[in-house]
Amino acid sequence: MNIIDIIFAASVPIVFAAVIWYYVSLFKFSRILAHDNPQALSQAREKRSMRISNLQAAYLVLSGTKDSAFDGYKLSSRALAARNHANRLLYIGLCAFMVLLAAGLIVSVTKA
Question: How far apart are CA 16 and CA 32, in angstroms?
């Protein structure tokens, strides 16, 4: 077993944990938005023509926040902290997935 196999085997649970942790953090962010900034959450829902869940609306706010505001609605400090945490976990999961993908490709090419 070489180092690439170890990296591949170690990154699978890391990706799994990061994705679960991200969705828990996104759910917490949506709850904070519903409590502290319901107007931003309703504005995110109005952007879509069909009905969306709180989690989908929270993702829209997460990705559409610029200068600590979403469509002109300032987010509370708790909402900004939760947004930063969810965003960080999204990037950690993405990076871990890229490592998993690269290790998997290297393993498949070297064993062929």
Answer: 25
How crowded is the C-beta side of 21, counted as CA atoms within 13 Å? Answer: 16
CB distance 12 to 19 below 8 Å: no
What's the farthest any 2 CA atoms get from each other in the chain?
56
Q: What are phi and psi of 71, to 5 degrees?
A: 50, 40
DSSP 47: T
pLDDT by residue for the chain (112 residues), tens digit each? 689 889 989 999 999 999 999 999 999 999 999 999 999 999 999 887 788 999 999 999 999 999 999 989 999 999 999 999 999 999 999 999 999 999 999 988 887 6
The reported pTM is 0.85
